[in-house]
Amino acid sequence: MDLKGDLKIASVQFENASGNKSHNLSIIRRLVGDAAARGCHVVAFHECCITGYTHASHLSRPELLALAEPVPSGTSTQALIAIAAEHHVVVMAGLFERDDDADHIYNTYVCVDGSGLMARFRKLHPFISRFLSSGSEYVVFDLLGWKAGILICYDNNVVENVRATALLGAEIIFAPHVTMCTPSTRPGAGFVDPKLWEMRERDPTSLKAEFDGLKGRQWLMKWLPARAYDNAVYVVFSNPIGMDDGQLKNGCSMILDPFGDVLDECKKLGEDMAVALCTRDKLEAAGGHRYRKARRPHLYAGIIGNSHNAELKVAWMGTNQKPGPSREGSF
Fold first, then answer.
1. Which residues contact 305 (CB under 8 A, 6 or more apart)?
2. Is 236 exposed, middle or buried (CB count within 10 Å of its CB: 0-12, 13-18, 19+)?
3. Is residue 326 part of a domain?
4. Which residues, 6+ apart, have CB-to-CB distance to 328 below 8 Å?
5. Is 301 exposed, middle or buried (0-12, 13-18, 19+ CB in 10 A)?
6. Max intra-chain CA distance, the chain
7. Engineered SS bond to 251: which of 13, 67, 223, 268, CB 3.0-4.6 Å?
8. For the segment 196-221, what is each residue's pLDDT rounded down to a tens digit?
C-alpha cells in the first residue's frame, strides 16, 4: 500500500504492564483494530510499550537480556507483523532489543506492516539502565509514500537530532515517549501521587490538575510544538497513561502539524487515541520550511560539529551518564 497522498495516523495511549509482553501485545492488538476501524493507515504506540520501561532500572543485565528480543525475528516483532497484516495497517511500537550476539541491548522502536519490518530505530540517548547501548544512526524511511523519521523520548530534547532527521528528508517524526510527571530542576516538576490514579473515577479533577499542570502538559507544550514548527514537520507524540512500574504517567498523546498546532490530543484518563490527517500542503506552507531554506550552514557547521564530551543528566535518577557503547556506524 503506497498512498502518496493524505495519511491518517493514530497516536495511542494505554497503561502497560511491566515485563508482561503477552498482555501488552493483546492491548496493542485490540487498539490497532479500533484505529483501523476509524480508517487509520498508521498506528503509533509509546516507548517500550511491549516490554514496559521504568522497571528496567531495577533489572540486572541477565534479567534485561531475558526480557529483550532480537529484531525482527523475535516473538514480539513477529506478533506486530501479524497484527499489521490482520488489520492492513502500519504498526509502530517499542521494546528492548538484543543483538544477535547478545553483546548489546537497545531501547528500540520498530515500524512494521503485514509483509515485515519497515524500519528499526535504536534510542540515541538511553538512560533507564546502565546495561543499554546507545544507537548511533538516524533513521529516515519510506512510509506509504511519505518520508518518516523516529526519535525516542530524550532524543527529541536534543534539538540537533530533530533538525538532522528533518534535513535527511523526514516529513513526519514519530516521537514515542515515557515522560512527564518526574522531578527535575525546573519549577513545578515532580512525581504525581499514584493514589490520585486509584481515585480517578471518584476525583478526576485533582488528577487532571496534576496531569495538565507544570508536572505534565504545561512542560510538554514549552518545547514539543517548537520541534514541529521549527522543522516544518508533523510530530506524532505517543506516551503511556497510568502506572509504569512505580511512576504515574499522564498520557497526553497528540499529533502536531508543521505549524506547531495540535491536530488531536488524548484527553481521557485511560486508554485513548489521537487521530489526525496529515496533508502535504502544510509541509511547504509552514514557516519552518522557509527558515530551513534560509539556513547558512557555513556560519555554524564548525560550531555544531565541534568535538563534545556528551553527558546525559536525568535529575530524577540522579545520573550523569555518558552514551553507552554501540556497534553501529554513523548515518
1. none
2. buried
3. no
4. 122, 135, 136, 137
5. exposed
6. 59
7. 13
8. 999 999 999 999 999 999 999 999 99
Tell me the β-bridge partners of 36. Answer: none
For the segment 303-320, the average pLDDT, to the nearest whole number, is 83
CA-based R_g, the chain, Å: 19
Supply the CATH number for residue 267's domain: 3.60.110.10
88 to 24, 26, 144, 155, 200: CA distances (angstroms): 20, 17, 12, 30, 35
How far apart CA 244 and CA 267 sit, in angstroms, is 19
Distance from the first to the final alpha carbon of the chain: 27
Query: Cα separation of 39 and 269, whole Å?
Result: 24
Phi, psi of 210 (to 5 degrees): -70, -45
pTM, two decimal places:
0.95
**CA 119 – CA 134 distance, rounded (Å):** 17
Q: Which residues constitute the domain of residue 155?
A: 7-321
Q: Which residues pair with 93 in a beta bridge?
A: 110
